[in-house]
Amino acid sequence: MRILVTGSSGFIGSRLLDKFVDMYGKENIVLLSSKPNDDFQTIVYIGCDFIIPSEIVKDIDLIFHAGAFIPKEGSDGNDINKC
Hints:
globular
């Protein structure tokens, strides 16, 4: 099983990533993240600008979305590009 994981650099996502590696192996995990990760195949995005190469995701069986945006200031909650 191949899994695409979002939010793997966060508190919850990083712990779930460890479990997925134990269960399915590092080679079966693809990350969608704002931070590069040399240990996994990673699709890095900046804001809304990213391209998902079809050869990376063609065999994905499960998408686990643990990603979230947490506003640091009240005005950030209304910024659609950040959210």
